[in-house]
Write a structure and sequence with these properties.
The structure holds two protein chains of two kinds. Chain A is an all-alpha fold. Chain A has helices at 2-10, 16-31, 34-54, 65-81, 87-103, 115-140, 150-171. Classes of the chains: A mainly alpha, B mainly alpha.
Chain lengths: 175, 210
């Protein structure tokens, strides 16, 4: 059982699109004031739980790479601009991000797999994503005032550039 | 007494062996996952990361961006390294879409020459002019990377790798440019700019191969 939980725990860091969104969102929330950080993290936790729950519905199979990359691009641009965002906006961004990552984290269905094992993977994924986001927020918070937020701005531009270029590739006619 | 001591040693050895076995197990096994591109994570990132580093023309131009930013001071120190990757992404998108851009290699060599000259001659234009100039050159660099992107096993990791490498080169330039706070450092920075400009001239004339 623990093995399945650990598999879920590792899941967010094994998917480049998820890592990009987590980094963009975590650093963006860390760049904001305490109310934005708190509400953003809590909304993310709720949204990812909802998203993971929705993967168990038969009609929820989808490929969210484009939307995830677009979200990463938006968070990267906002980081680079270093705007003071309202609480509701941060909550919406975190909610959309959490829900999309959750929906894109459906575990592999092995025939005969017990429900408890499946729930262990889902729980591991929810915990892994939430802890990762929290850690990124904590890492970014002290950097928000260092050198006028230089590091966070530069990291934001990297996130946006990486995401937007791959988004262009996904929309390219020959792809 | 002796047997108790011996039993403790045996138990300690068993614990060490079990620990080694667990470490070996953890190191040699990987999780079974649904996504097919998982195995290429480090490889994809590293191939993107090394892409700008193998082109000397890219390297000197990236360092020049950071150097000029540091030389101009705030806010250029963060505006230029932020503008560059953002516009580079636009250039990359053009490359990915297959939009032709004439003289990409020439543009990259000119970027090293011009940015190097800016530092050497201590030219301090308004911020928007500096950003425009750097942004214009970023299109050429982005286009060169973007044309490689469709061949990458994992495009997101490849692009994250080369954007990170580009940013690290900017930071190297910024760190070097920070020396200009001291009088001897300012001379060293301007000499660095001259070396970059000369290399740009070398790439343009064909003396140097990128």
């Amino acid at each position: 059982m623990a093995n399945f939980f650990l598999q879920g725990l590792q899941h967010p860091w094994q998917l480049p699109a998820h890592v990009t969104v987590l980094i963009g969102l975590g650093l963006l929330l860390g760049q904001q004031s305490i109310p934005q950080r708190r509400s953003g993290w809590w909304v993310f936790v709720l949204a990812i739980t909802l998203g993971l729950g929705l993967t168990q519905l038969p009609a929820s199979v989808w490929n969210g790479n484009r939307v995830l990359l677009a979200l990463a691009g938006v968070t990267g641009c906002l980081l680079a601009l270093r705007l003071e965002l309202p609480v509701w906006f941060c909550a919406v961004l975190a909610g959309v991000g959490g829900c999309l990552i959750g929906l894109d984290s459906a575990p592999v269905m092995i025939p005969g797999m017990k429900a408890l094992k499946l729930y262990s993977v889902l729980a591991g994924t929810a915990v892994g994503d939430s802890l990762s986001l929290g850690l990124l927020i904590l890492l970014a918070a002290p950097l928000r005032t260092v050198l006028d937020g230089l590091m966070l701005r530069i990291l934001g531009s990297w996130v946006a550039a990486s995401a937007l270029m791959v988004l262009a590739l996904l929309f390219a006619p020959h792809h | 007494m002796y047997s108790v001591y011996r039993r403790k040693i045996m138990a300690s050895r068993c614990m060490k062996q079990a620990g080694s076995a667990v470490l070996l197990f953890v190191a040699l096994t990987s999780a079974a996952l649904a996504h097919t591109d998982v195995g290429t994570i480090s490889g994809g990132f590293m191939s993107g990361f090394t892409h700008p580093l193998f082109g000397l023309d890219h390297v000197v131009a990236m360092v020049a961006v950071g150097l000029w930013g540091a030389f101009l001071g705030r806010p250029a120190i963060w505006v230029l390294p932020v503008v560059f990757p953002m516009v580079m992404a636009f250039g990359g998108a053009l490359g990915v879409m297959g939009v032709p851009l004439p003289g990409v290699e020439t543009g990259i060599a000119v970027s090293a020459l011009v940015l190097g000259l800016m530092v050497t001659l201590a030219i301090r234009p308004p911020l928007w002019v500096a950003a425009l100039l750097v942004g214009a050159f970023a299109i050429f660099h982005g286009h060169a990377h973007g044309t490689e992107l469709p061949n990458a096993a994992n495009p997101l990791l490849f692009s994250a790798g080369f954007v990170t490498a580009t940013g690290m080169l900017h930071l190297m330039g910024i760190a070097f440019g920070e020396l200009s706070r001291w009088s001897w450092g300012a001379v060293a920075v301007r000499a660095g700019g001259a070396a970059i400009a000369l290399s740009g001239l070398g790439f343009l004339s064909g003396w140097l191969v990128a």
